[in-house]
Design brief:
six-stranded mixed sheet; binds adenosine-5'-triphosphate; ABC transporter transmembrane region fold; alpha/beta; binds magnesium ion; Rossmann fold
Protein backbone atom coordinates (compact mmCIF):
# COMPACT_ATOMS: atom_id res chain seq x y z
CA UNK A 1 0.00 0.00 0.00
CA UNK A 2 2.83 2.36 0.92
CA UNK A 3 4.45 1.87 -2.48
CA UNK A 4 1.14 2.50 -4.25
CA UNK A 5 0.57 5.72 -2.30
CA UNK A 6 4.12 6.85 -3.09
CA UNK A 7 3.49 6.33 -6.81
CA UNK A 8 0.18 8.22 -6.69
CA UNK A 9 1.63 11.10 -4.68
CA UNK A 10 4.53 11.49 -7.09
CA UNK A 11 2.27 11.15 -10.10
CA UNK A 12 0.43 14.28 -8.99
CA UNK A 13 3.72 15.92 -8.05
CA UNK A 14 5.35 15.60 -11.47
CA UNK A 15 2.29 16.99 -13.26
CA UNK A 16 2.53 20.27 -11.37
CA UNK A 17 5.53 21.87 -13.19
CA UNK A 18 3.77 21.23 -16.52
CA UNK A 19 1.02 23.69 -15.60
CA UNK A 20 3.57 26.29 -14.60
CA UNK A 21 5.14 25.77 -17.99
CA UNK A 22 1.77 26.08 -19.74
CA UNK A 23 0.83 29.32 -18.00
CA UNK A 24 4.18 30.97 -18.76
CA UNK A 25 4.09 29.83 -22.35
CA UNK A 26 0.58 31.18 -22.77
CA UNK A 27 1.59 34.53 -21.26
CA UNK A 28 4.71 34.79 -23.38
CA UNK A 29 2.75 33.86 -26.55
CA UNK A 30 0.64 36.94 -26.04
CA UNK A 31 3.79 38.99 -25.51
CA UNK A 32 2.94 39.40 -21.81
CA UNK A 33 0.31 41.97 -22.80
CA UNK A 34 -2.81 40.15 -21.62
CA UNK A 35 -6.00 41.83 -20.67
CA UNK A 36 -6.72 41.79 -16.97
CA UNK A 37 -9.73 39.48 -17.31
CA UNK A 38 -7.72 37.06 -19.45
CA UNK A 39 -5.01 36.95 -16.79
CA UNK A 40 -7.64 36.33 -14.16
CA UNK A 41 -9.14 33.50 -16.18
CA UNK A 42 -5.66 32.01 -16.64
CA UNK A 43 -4.96 32.19 -12.95
CA UNK A 44 -8.26 30.56 -12.07
CA UNK A 45 -7.97 27.80 -14.67
CA UNK A 46 -4.34 26.86 -14.28
CA UNK A 47 -4.00 27.93 -10.68
CA UNK A 48 -7.08 25.87 -9.81
CA UNK A 49 -5.67 22.79 -11.49
CA UNK A 50 -2.35 23.36 -9.78
CA UNK A 51 -4.11 23.58 -6.45
CA UNK A 52 -6.02 20.34 -7.04
CA UNK A 53 -2.81 18.57 -7.96
CA UNK A 54 -1.18 19.86 -4.76
CA UNK A 55 -4.07 18.55 -2.73
CA UNK A 56 -3.82 15.16 -4.45
CA UNK A 57 -0.10 15.04 -3.88
CA UNK A 58 -0.45 16.02 -0.24
CA UNK A 59 -3.26 13.57 0.40
CA UNK A 60 -1.31 10.59 -0.86
CA UNK A 61 1.86 11.83 0.85
CA UNK A 62 -0.10 11.70 4.09
CA UNK A 63 -1.29 8.16 3.35
CA UNK A 64 2.26 7.11 2.38
CA UNK A 65 3.61 8.19 5.76
CA UNK A 66 0.62 6.70 7.56
CA UNK A 67 1.25 3.30 6.03
CA UNK A 68 5.03 3.00 5.92
CA UNK A 69 5.93 4.77 9.16
CA UNK A 70 3.12 3.05 11.04
CA UNK A 71 4.25 -0.31 9.69
CA UNK A 72 7.73 0.38 11.02
CA UNK A 73 6.32 1.27 14.44
CA UNK A 74 4.34 -1.96 14.50
CA UNK A 75 7.38 -4.02 13.60
CA UNK A 76 9.32 -2.21 16.31
CA UNK A 77 6.60 -3.15 18.79
CA UNK A 78 6.70 -6.80 17.74
CA UNK A 79 10.47 -6.87 17.80
CA UNK A 80 10.66 -5.37 21.29
CA UNK A 81 8.16 -7.90 22.59
CA UNK A 82 9.93 -10.76 20.87
CA UNK A 83 13.35 -9.81 22.19
CA UNK A 84 12.05 -9.21 25.71
CA UNK A 85 10.17 -12.50 25.71
CA UNK A 86 13.31 -14.25 24.58
CA UNK A 87 15.38 -12.53 27.28
CA UNK A 88 13.02 -13.99 29.86
CA UNK A 89 13.54 -17.55 28.60
CA UNK A 90 17.31 -17.27 28.92
CA UNK A 91 18.85 -18.65 32.08
CA UNK A 92 21.30 -17.43 34.68
CA UNK A 93 24.33 -18.52 32.66
CA UNK A 94 23.38 -16.05 29.92
CA UNK A 95 22.92 -13.21 32.40
CA UNK A 96 26.28 -13.95 33.96
CA UNK A 97 27.93 -13.54 30.55
CA UNK A 98 26.24 -10.32 29.43
CA UNK A 99 26.10 -6.91 31.00
CA UNK A 100 22.74 -5.35 31.80
CA UNK A 101 23.68 -2.21 29.88
CA UNK A 102 24.20 -4.30 26.78
CA UNK A 103 20.84 -6.04 27.17
CA UNK A 104 19.12 -2.70 27.58
CA UNK A 105 20.88 -1.20 24.59
CA UNK A 106 19.86 -3.99 22.26
CA UNK A 107 16.22 -3.72 23.20
CA UNK A 108 16.10 0.06 22.91
CA UNK A 109 18.87 1.62 20.79
CA UNK A 110 19.43 -1.26 18.35
CA UNK A 111 15.76 -1.84 17.75
CA UNK A 112 15.20 1.83 17.03
CA UNK A 113 18.03 1.75 14.46
CA UNK A 114 16.23 -1.12 12.75
CA UNK A 115 13.01 0.84 12.87
CA UNK A 116 14.73 3.83 11.23
CA UNK A 117 15.56 1.55 8.34
CA UNK A 118 12.08 0.02 8.08
CA UNK A 119 10.38 3.42 8.32
CA UNK A 120 12.20 6.41 6.87
CA UNK A 121 14.85 4.21 5.22
CA UNK A 122 12.36 2.23 3.16
CA UNK A 123 10.08 5.21 2.58
CA UNK A 124 12.77 7.52 1.19
CA UNK A 125 14.21 4.72 -0.94
CA UNK A 126 10.88 3.97 -2.59
CA UNK A 127 10.22 7.67 -2.98
CA UNK A 128 13.63 8.24 -4.57
CA UNK A 129 13.13 5.51 -7.16
CA UNK A 130 9.56 6.51 -8.07
CA UNK A 131 10.27 10.23 -8.17
CA UNK A 132 13.50 9.87 -10.19
CA UNK A 133 11.93 7.64 -12.79
CA UNK A 134 8.90 9.93 -13.21
CA UNK A 135 10.76 13.26 -13.14
CA UNK A 136 13.57 12.14 -15.42
CA UNK A 137 11.01 10.75 -17.85
CA UNK A 138 9.18 14.11 -17.88
CA UNK A 139 12.43 16.04 -18.29
CA UNK A 140 13.59 13.95 -21.24
CA UNK A 141 10.14 14.27 -22.77
CA UNK A 142 10.48 18.07 -22.72
CA UNK A 143 14.08 18.28 -23.87
CA UNK A 144 16.80 15.66 -23.67
CA UNK A 145 19.80 18.02 -23.97
CA UNK A 146 18.62 20.17 -21.12
CA UNK A 147 17.72 17.07 -19.09
CA UNK A 148 21.27 15.78 -19.49
CA UNK A 149 22.85 19.02 -18.25
CA UNK A 150 20.38 19.46 -15.42
CA UNK A 151 21.08 15.98 -14.07
CA UNK A 152 24.85 16.24 -14.46
CA UNK A 153 25.72 17.45 -10.93
CA UNK A 154 23.35 15.05 -9.11
CA UNK A 155 25.57 11.91 -9.00
CA UNK A 156 28.48 14.02 -7.79
CA UNK A 157 26.23 15.43 -5.10
CA UNK A 158 25.11 11.97 -3.96
CA UNK A 159 28.69 10.78 -3.75
CA UNK A 160 29.76 13.81 -1.71
CA UNK A 161 26.80 13.43 0.61
CA UNK A 162 27.58 9.77 1.10
CA UNK A 163 31.14 10.64 2.13
CA UNK A 164 30.03 13.39 4.47
CA UNK A 165 27.30 11.15 5.95
CA UNK A 166 29.91 8.54 6.79
CA UNK A 167 31.89 11.17 8.62
CA UNK A 168 28.82 12.38 10.43
CA UNK A 169 27.99 8.80 11.40
CA UNK A 170 31.40 8.07 12.75
CA UNK A 171 31.42 11.31 14.63
CA UNK A 172 27.93 10.82 16.06
CA UNK A 173 28.88 7.30 17.11
CA UNK A 174 31.71 8.81 19.12
CA UNK A 175 29.34 11.34 20.60
CA UNK A 176 26.90 8.56 21.54
CA UNK A 177 29.63 6.53 23.22
CA UNK A 178 30.63 9.53 25.27
CA UNK A 179 27.00 10.17 26.10
CA UNK A 180 26.53 6.65 27.46
CA UNK A 181 29.78 6.99 29.39
CA UNK A 182 28.45 10.17 30.93
CA UNK A 183 25.18 8.45 31.87
CA UNK A 184 27.01 5.53 33.44
CA UNK A 185 29.12 7.85 35.59
CA UNK A 186 26.08 9.80 36.73
CA UNK A 187 24.11 6.64 37.43
CA UNK A 188 26.91 5.02 39.45
CA UNK A 189 27.27 8.21 41.45
CA UNK A 190 23.59 8.33 42.36
CA UNK A 191 23.44 4.62 43.23
CA UNK A 192 26.47 4.91 45.50
CA UNK A 193 25.80 8.40 46.78
CA UNK A 194 25.82 7.33 50.45
CA UNK A 195 29.19 5.60 50.04
CA UNK A 196 30.61 8.60 48.19
CA UNK A 197 29.53 10.98 50.93
CA UNK A 198 30.69 8.70 53.72
CA UNK A 199 34.15 8.46 52.14
CA UNK A 200 34.23 12.17 51.39
CA UNK A 201 34.55 11.57 47.66
CA UNK A 202 32.18 14.22 46.30
CA UNK A 203 35.01 16.19 44.73
CA UNK A 204 36.51 13.23 42.91
CA UNK A 205 33.04 12.24 41.70
CA UNK A 206 32.62 15.79 40.42
CA UNK A 207 35.97 15.66 38.61
CA UNK A 208 35.19 12.33 37.04
CA UNK A 209 32.00 13.72 35.55
CA UNK A 210 33.69 16.94 34.52
CA UNK A 211 36.37 15.09 32.54
CA UNK A 212 33.80 12.94 30.81
CA UNK A 213 31.70 16.01 30.02
CA UNK A 214 34.78 17.72 28.59
CA UNK A 215 35.39 14.85 26.14
CA UNK A 216 31.72 14.82 25.27
CA UNK A 217 31.80 18.53 24.52
CA UNK A 218 34.88 18.26 22.27
CA UNK A 219 33.39 15.41 20.27
CA UNK A 220 30.02 17.13 19.97
CA UNK A 221 31.70 20.27 18.62
CA UNK A 222 33.44 18.23 15.95
CA UNK A 223 30.05 16.88 14.92
CA UNK A 224 28.60 20.38 14.78
CA UNK A 225 31.47 21.48 12.50
CA UNK A 226 30.89 18.65 10.01
CA UNK A 227 27.16 19.32 10.07
CA UNK A 228 27.75 23.01 9.47
CA UNK A 229 29.79 22.27 6.35
CA UNK A 230 27.16 19.90 5.05
CA UNK A 231 24.34 22.28 4.16
CA UNK A 232 26.43 24.92 2.31
CA UNK A 233 27.97 22.15 0.16
CA UNK A 234 24.55 20.94 -0.88
CA UNK A 235 23.28 24.43 -1.58
CA UNK A 236 26.35 25.08 -3.72
CA UNK A 237 25.65 22.04 -5.85
CA UNK A 238 21.97 22.89 -6.22
CA UNK A 239 23.05 26.35 -7.29
CA UNK A 240 25.38 24.84 -9.89
CA UNK A 241 22.56 22.73 -11.26
CA UNK A 242 20.23 25.73 -11.47
CA UNK A 243 22.90 27.79 -13.24
CA UNK A 244 23.40 25.05 -15.81
CA UNK A 245 19.66 24.82 -16.48
CA UNK A 246 19.35 28.57 -16.97
CA UNK A 247 22.41 28.84 -19.19
CA UNK A 248 21.77 25.78 -21.38
CA UNK A 249 18.03 26.56 -21.40
CA UNK A 250 18.68 30.12 -22.61
CA UNK A 251 20.93 28.88 -25.39
CA UNK A 252 18.27 26.39 -26.50
CA UNK A 253 15.53 29.05 -26.35
CA UNK A 254 17.62 31.36 -28.48
CA UNK A 255 17.74 28.55 -31.06
CA UNK A 256 13.94 28.14 -30.73
CA UNK A 257 14.35 24.57 -29.50
CA UNK A 258 12.73 25.28 -26.16
CA UNK A 259 9.95 27.44 -24.74
CA UNK A 260 10.47 29.87 -21.90
CA UNK A 261 8.01 27.94 -19.70
CA UNK A 262 10.01 24.76 -20.11
CA UNK A 263 13.04 26.36 -18.43
CA UNK A 264 10.89 27.23 -15.43
CA UNK A 265 9.41 23.70 -15.37
CA UNK A 266 12.95 22.33 -15.42
CA UNK A 267 13.94 24.42 -12.44
CA UNK A 268 10.99 22.91 -10.58
CA UNK A 269 12.08 19.37 -11.49
CA UNK A 270 15.68 19.99 -10.44
CA UNK A 271 14.48 21.36 -7.12
CA UNK A 272 12.15 18.40 -6.59
CA UNK A 273 14.94 15.95 -7.27
CA UNK A 274 17.44 17.58 -4.96
CA UNK A 275 16.12 16.32 -1.63
CA UNK A 276 15.64 12.71 -2.67
CA UNK A 277 19.23 12.69 -3.95
CA UNK A 278 20.43 14.25 -0.74
CA UNK A 279 18.66 11.46 1.11
CA UNK A 280 20.67 8.76 -0.72
CA UNK A 281 23.67 9.33 1.49
CA UNK A 282 21.53 9.54 4.58
CA UNK A 283 19.55 6.39 3.74
CA UNK A 284 22.76 4.49 3.01
CA UNK A 285 24.05 5.24 6.45
CA UNK A 286 20.70 4.28 8.03
CA UNK A 287 20.90 0.94 6.23
CA UNK A 288 24.46 0.34 7.41
CA UNK A 289 23.59 1.12 11.00
CA UNK A 290 20.44 -1.02 10.89
CA UNK A 291 22.45 -3.93 9.53
CA UNK A 292 24.91 -3.75 12.42
CA UNK A 293 22.07 -3.41 14.91
CA UNK A 294 20.06 -6.31 13.52
CA UNK A 295 23.18 -8.46 13.78
CA UNK A 296 23.52 -7.57 17.44
CA UNK A 297 19.83 -8.33 18.04
CA UNK A 298 20.08 -11.68 16.24
CA UNK A 299 23.07 -12.61 18.35
CA UNK A 300 20.83 -12.54 21.42
CA UNK A 301 17.78 -13.95 19.67
CA UNK A 302 19.76 -16.99 18.63
CA UNK A 303 21.15 -17.53 22.13
CA UNK A 304 19.55 -20.69 23.47
CA UNK A 305 18.80 -21.23 27.15
CA UNK A 306 20.91 -24.06 28.50
CA UNK A 307 18.10 -25.25 30.73
CA UNK A 308 14.76 -25.87 29.02
CA UNK A 309 11.65 -27.53 30.36
CA UNK A 310 12.18 -31.17 29.35
CA UNK A 311 8.60 -32.34 29.79
CA UNK A 312 5.07 -31.01 29.72
CA UNK A 313 3.60 -34.02 31.52
CA UNK A 314 2.01 -32.89 34.78
CA UNK A 315 4.24 -33.47 37.77
CA UNK A 316 3.07 -33.69 41.34
CA UNK A 317 5.67 -32.65 43.87
CA UNK A 318 5.07 -33.92 47.39
CA UNK A 319 8.29 -32.71 48.97
CA UNK A 320 10.59 -35.77 48.62
CA UNK A 321 14.06 -34.96 47.38
CA UNK A 322 17.31 -36.91 47.13
CA UNK A 323 20.85 -35.93 46.14
CA UNK A 324 23.10 -38.78 45.00
CA UNK A 325 26.81 -38.06 44.69
CA UNK A 326 26.07 -34.64 43.21
CA UNK A 327 29.03 -32.69 41.84
CA UNK A 328 28.99 -29.11 40.60
CA UNK A 329 31.85 -27.17 39.09
CA UNK A 330 31.37 -23.55 37.96
CA UNK A 331 32.62 -23.25 34.39
CA UNK A 332 33.85 -19.68 34.60
CA UNK A 333 35.94 -20.03 37.73
CA UNK A 334 36.62 -23.76 37.73
CA UNK A 335 35.59 -23.81 41.40
CA UNK A 336 34.29 -27.18 42.54
CA UNK A 337 31.37 -26.00 44.66
CA UNK A 338 29.77 -29.42 45.33
CA UNK A 339 31.58 -32.70 45.58
CA UNK A 340 30.01 -36.19 45.84
CA UNK A 341 27.18 -34.76 47.89
CA UNK A 342 24.41 -37.12 49.02
CA UNK A 343 21.45 -36.45 51.31
CA UNK A 344 17.72 -36.92 51.44
CA UNK A 345 14.66 -34.98 52.57
CA UNK A 346 11.34 -36.68 53.10
CA UNK A 347 8.07 -34.84 52.68
CA UNK A 348 7.47 -32.47 55.60
CA UNK A 349 10.98 -32.78 57.01
CA UNK A 350 13.25 -29.90 57.93
CA UNK A 351 16.85 -30.06 56.81
CA UNK A 352 19.43 -27.62 58.07
CA UNK A 353 22.53 -26.88 56.02
CA UNK A 354 25.42 -25.53 58.02
CA UNK A 355 28.75 -24.41 56.65
CA UNK A 356 31.26 -21.62 56.51
CA UNK A 357 31.04 -18.95 53.86
CA UNK A 358 31.91 -20.33 50.43
CA UNK A 359 31.30 -23.92 51.47
CA UNK A 360 28.67 -24.42 48.75
CA UNK A 361 25.39 -23.85 50.59
CA UNK A 362 23.81 -21.58 47.99
CA UNK A 363 25.11 -23.88 45.28
CA UNK A 364 23.01 -26.75 46.68
CA UNK A 365 19.97 -24.54 46.34
CA UNK A 366 20.81 -23.40 42.83
CA UNK A 367 21.22 -27.06 41.87
CA UNK A 368 17.96 -28.24 43.38
CA UNK A 369 15.94 -25.37 41.92
CA UNK A 370 17.65 -26.29 38.64
CA UNK A 371 18.96 -22.79 38.09
CA UNK A 372 22.17 -24.51 37.09
CA UNK A 373 22.83 -28.04 35.85
CA UNK A 374 25.06 -30.34 37.86
CA UNK A 375 28.14 -32.02 36.38
CA UNK A 376 27.96 -35.33 38.20
CA UNK A 377 25.61 -37.54 40.19
CA UNK A 378 21.84 -37.28 40.15
CA UNK A 379 19.12 -35.30 41.89
CA UNK A 380 15.89 -37.25 42.37
CA UNK A 381 12.54 -35.59 42.97
CA UNK A 382 9.82 -38.06 43.94
CA UNK A 383 12.13 -40.77 42.53
CA UNK A 384 12.30 -39.12 39.14
CA UNK A 385 15.41 -37.43 37.76
CA UNK A 386 15.26 -33.66 38.17
CA UNK A 387 16.38 -33.10 34.58
CA UNK A 388 13.44 -35.14 33.25
CA UNK A 389 10.46 -33.64 35.09
CA UNK A 390 8.17 -30.73 34.25
CA UNK A 391 10.14 -27.76 35.58
CA UNK A 392 7.16 -25.43 35.50
CA UNK A 393 5.11 -27.66 37.81
CA UNK A 394 8.07 -28.38 40.06
CA UNK A 395 9.15 -24.77 40.45
CA UNK A 396 5.60 -23.62 41.13
CA UNK A 397 5.73 -25.71 44.32
CA UNK A 398 9.06 -24.34 45.52
CA UNK A 399 9.39 -21.09 47.40
CA UNK A 400 12.89 -19.75 47.68
CA UNK A 401 13.93 -16.96 50.00
CA UNK A 402 17.26 -15.96 48.53
CA UNK A 403 20.31 -14.78 50.41
CA UNK A 404 20.15 -11.28 48.94
CA UNK A 405 16.68 -9.91 49.39
CA UNK A 406 15.13 -8.18 46.45
CA UNK A 407 12.06 -6.04 46.84
CA UNK A 408 10.38 -4.13 44.03
CA UNK A 409 9.58 -0.42 44.19
CA UNK A 410 5.96 -1.34 44.71
CA UNK A 411 3.44 -1.75 47.52
CA UNK A 412 4.05 -4.26 50.29
CA UNK A 413 1.00 -6.19 49.10
CA UNK A 414 2.37 -6.56 45.57
CA UNK A 415 5.78 -7.50 46.90
CA UNK A 416 4.28 -10.31 48.95
CA UNK A 417 1.93 -11.64 46.28
CA UNK A 418 4.59 -11.39 43.56
CA UNK A 419 4.37 -14.28 41.13
CA UNK A 420 1.23 -15.84 42.56
CA UNK A 421 -0.89 -17.22 39.72
CA UNK A 422 -4.21 -16.35 41.38
CA UNK A 423 -5.24 -13.17 43.18
CA UNK A 424 -4.74 -13.41 46.92
CA UNK A 425 -6.96 -11.75 49.50
CA UNK A 426 -5.58 -9.43 52.15
CA UNK A 427 -6.28 -11.79 55.04
CA UNK A 428 -3.94 -14.37 53.53
CA UNK A 429 -1.31 -11.71 52.90
CA UNK A 430 -1.57 -10.51 56.50
CA UNK A 431 -1.47 -14.11 57.72
CA UNK A 432 1.80 -14.65 55.84
CA UNK A 433 3.24 -11.40 57.20
CA UNK A 434 2.29 -12.48 60.71
CA UNK A 435 3.99 -15.86 60.24
CA UNK A 436 7.10 -13.98 59.11
CA UNK A 437 6.76 -11.81 62.22
CA UNK A 438 6.74 -8.50 60.37
CA UNK A 439 3.05 -7.58 60.42
CA UNK A 440 3.42 -5.60 63.65
CA UNK A 441 5.98 -3.35 61.88
CA UNK A 442 3.79 -2.83 58.84
CA UNK A 443 0.77 -1.99 60.98
CA UNK A 444 2.66 1.06 62.17
CA UNK A 445 2.84 2.48 58.64
CA UNK A 446 -0.19 4.69 57.98
CA UNK A 447 -0.80 3.07 54.62
CA UNK A 448 -0.37 -0.52 55.80
CA UNK A 449 -0.26 -3.00 52.93
CA UNK A 450 -0.38 -0.11 50.45
CA UNK A 451 2.92 1.30 51.69
CA UNK A 452 5.25 1.74 48.73
CA UNK A 453 8.78 0.43 49.22
CA UNK A 454 12.08 1.27 47.63
CA UNK A 455 13.61 4.23 45.86
CA UNK A 456 10.52 6.42 45.89
CA UNK A 457 8.95 4.95 49.00
CA UNK A 458 9.66 3.77 52.50
CA UNK A 459 13.05 2.37 53.40
CA UNK A 460 12.85 -0.77 55.50
CA UNK A 461 15.54 -2.12 57.77
CA UNK A 462 17.57 -5.09 56.58
CA UNK A 463 15.72 -7.44 58.92
CA UNK A 464 12.30 -6.14 57.86
CA UNK A 465 13.19 -6.71 54.24
CA UNK A 466 14.25 -10.27 54.96
CA UNK A 467 10.99 -10.96 56.75
CA UNK A 468 8.86 -9.55 53.93
CA UNK A 469 10.74 -11.80 51.59
CA UNK A 470 9.90 -14.76 53.87
CA UNK A 471 6.22 -13.75 53.77
CA UNK A 472 6.45 -13.75 49.98
CA UNK A 473 7.51 -17.40 50.13
CA UNK A 474 4.86 -18.43 52.67
CA UNK A 475 1.90 -16.85 50.93
CA UNK A 476 2.25 -19.40 48.12
CA UNK A 477 1.79 -22.42 50.41
CA UNK A 478 4.85 -24.13 48.96
CA UNK A 479 5.61 -27.84 49.13
CA UNK A 480 9.29 -27.04 49.56
CA UNK A 481 10.39 -23.95 51.41
CA UNK A 482 14.01 -22.89 51.05
CA UNK A 483 15.49 -20.31 53.38
CA UNK A 484 18.96 -19.34 52.20
CA UNK A 485 20.59 -17.58 55.13
CA UNK A 486 17.62 -15.24 55.22
CA UNK A 487 17.56 -14.61 58.94
CA UNK A 488 21.09 -13.22 59.10
CA UNK A 489 19.88 -9.65 59.64
CA UNK A 490 17.39 -10.35 62.43
CA UNK A 491 18.30 -10.67 66.10
CA UNK A 492 18.21 -14.08 67.77
CA UNK A 493 15.01 -13.32 69.64
CA UNK A 494 13.05 -12.48 66.48
CA UNK A 495 14.66 -15.47 64.81
CA UNK A 496 13.34 -17.67 67.58
CA UNK A 497 9.80 -16.37 67.05
CA UNK A 498 9.94 -16.91 63.30
CA UNK A 499 11.38 -20.41 63.61
CA UNK A 500 8.68 -21.42 66.07
CA UNK A 501 6.02 -20.11 63.71
CA UNK A 502 7.57 -22.02 60.82
CA UNK A 503 7.24 -25.20 62.87
CA UNK A 504 3.52 -24.61 63.26
CA UNK A 505 2.58 -23.66 59.71
CA UNK A 506 -0.98 -24.55 58.69
CA UNK A 507 0.53 -26.53 55.79
CA UNK A 508 3.41 -28.97 56.06
CA UNK A 509 6.17 -28.11 53.62
CA UNK A 510 9.59 -29.70 53.46
CA UNK A 511 12.00 -27.03 54.60
CA UNK A 512 15.65 -26.46 53.81
CA UNK A 513 17.22 -23.89 56.08
CA UNK A 514 20.67 -22.65 55.20
CA UNK A 515 22.68 -20.84 57.80
CA UNK A 516 26.07 -20.39 59.33
CA UNK A 517 24.43 -19.92 62.75
CA UNK A 518 23.79 -23.11 64.69
CA UNK A 519 20.99 -21.44 66.66
CA UNK A 520 18.95 -21.16 63.46
CA UNK A 521 19.16 -24.87 62.85
CA UNK A 522 18.58 -26.48 66.21
CA UNK A 523 14.93 -27.29 65.47
CA UNK A 524 15.72 -29.12 62.23
CA UNK A 525 15.11 -32.86 61.87
CA UNK A 526 18.52 -33.30 60.28
CA UNK A 527 21.57 -31.16 59.82
CA UNK A 528 24.06 -31.42 57.03
CA UNK A 529 27.43 -29.90 57.81
CA UNK A 530 29.11 -28.79 54.64
CA UNK A 531 32.80 -28.20 54.14
CA UNK A 532 34.26 -27.33 50.74
CA UNK A 533 31.26 -28.80 48.94
CA UNK A 534 31.36 -32.07 50.83
CA UNK A 535 29.12 -33.43 53.53
CA UNK A 536 31.32 -33.91 56.59
CA UNK A 537 28.58 -34.62 59.13
CA UNK A 538 24.93 -35.57 58.92
CA UNK A 539 22.34 -36.36 61.55
CA UNK A 540 19.86 -34.84 63.97
CA UNK A 541 21.14 -32.06 66.24
CA UNK A 542 21.28 -34.15 69.45
CA UNK A 543 23.21 -36.94 67.76
CA UNK A 544 25.65 -34.45 66.34
CA UNK A 545 26.16 -32.82 69.74
CA UNK A 546 26.98 -36.19 71.25
CA UNK A 547 29.41 -37.01 68.48
CA UNK A 548 31.49 -33.93 69.41
CA UNK A 549 32.53 -33.34 65.82
CA UNK A 550 32.41 -30.27 63.64
CA UNK A 551 28.83 -29.35 64.57
CA UNK A 552 29.73 -29.53 68.25
CA UNK A 553 32.68 -27.21 67.61
CA UNK A 554 30.45 -24.75 65.78
CA UNK A 555 27.96 -24.70 68.64
CA UNK A 556 30.67 -24.24 71.26
CA UNK A 557 32.32 -21.44 69.35
CA UNK A 558 29.08 -19.59 68.71
CA UNK A 559 27.97 -19.93 72.32
CA UNK A 560 31.27 -18.38 73.36
CA UNK A 561 30.81 -15.49 70.93
CA UNK A 562 27.27 -14.89 72.14
CA UNK A 563 28.23 -14.84 75.78
CA UNK A 564 30.97 -12.38 74.92
CA UNK A 565 33.92 -14.53 76.04
N1 LIG B 1 28.00 -18.17 39.68
C1 LIG B 1 29.20 -18.58 40.13
N2 LIG B 1 30.24 -18.63 39.28
C2 LIG B 1 31.45 -19.05 39.74
N3 LIG B 1 31.72 -19.42 40.97
C3 LIG B 1 30.73 -19.38 41.87
C4 LIG B 1 29.42 -18.95 41.50
N4 LIG B 1 28.63 -19.02 42.58
C5 LIG B 1 29.40 -19.47 43.59
N5 LIG B 1 30.67 -19.69 43.17
C6 LIG B 1 31.77 -20.21 43.99
O1 LIG B 1 31.38 -21.46 44.52
C7 LIG B 1 31.75 -21.57 45.88
C8 LIG B 1 30.55 -21.87 46.75
O2 LIG B 1 29.70 -20.73 46.72
P1 LIG B 1 28.31 -20.67 47.47
O3 LIG B 1 27.64 -19.43 47.03
O4 LIG B 1 27.59 -21.94 47.26
O5 LIG B 1 28.77 -20.51 48.98
P2 LIG B 1 27.89 -20.34 50.30
O6 LIG B 1 28.16 -21.51 51.15
O7 LIG B 1 26.49 -20.06 49.95
O8 LIG B 1 28.55 -19.06 50.96
P3 LIG B 1 27.87 -17.88 51.81
O9 LIG B 1 27.64 -18.39 53.19
O10 LIG B 1 28.89 -16.80 51.81
O11 LIG B 1 26.62 -17.51 51.12
C9 LIG B 1 32.46 -20.29 46.25
O12 LIG B 1 33.86 -20.52 46.22
C10 LIG B 1 32.06 -19.31 45.17
O13 LIG B 1 33.11 -18.43 44.87
MG1 LIG C 1 25.26 -18.43 50.08
Amino acid sequence: MGTLFTILSNYFGVQMPRYVQESIDELSASGFSNQLENALWLALRIGGLYLMLSIGKGFFLFLMRQTIIIMSRRIEYDLKNEVFKHYLTLDNAFYKKNRIGDLMNRISEDISQVRMYLGPGVMYSINLIVLSVMSIYQMFKINSTLAFFALLPLPLMSYLIYRVSNRINLSSKHVQEEQSNLTTIAQETFVNIRLIKAYNQTESAQNKLKNAAETYKTKSMRLVLINALFMPTILLLIGASTLLVIYVGAVLTENHQLSLGSIVAFLFYVNNLTWPFVSIGWVTSIIQRAEASQQRINEFLSAEPEIVNPSLAPFEFKGNLRFEKVALTYENTGIKALNELSFEIKSGEQLGVLGKTGSGKSSIIAALARQIDINGGTIYVEDQRLDKINLQDYRSKIALVPQDVFLFSDTIRNNVTFGCPEPIDDTTVIEALKMAHVWHNIQEFPEGLDTVLGEIGVNLSGGQKQRISIARALVRFPTLLILDDCLSAVDTETEEVILNQLKNLPFKPSVITVSHRTSTLRNCDNILVLHEGQCVEYGNPEELMKRKGLYYDFVQQQNKENSGV
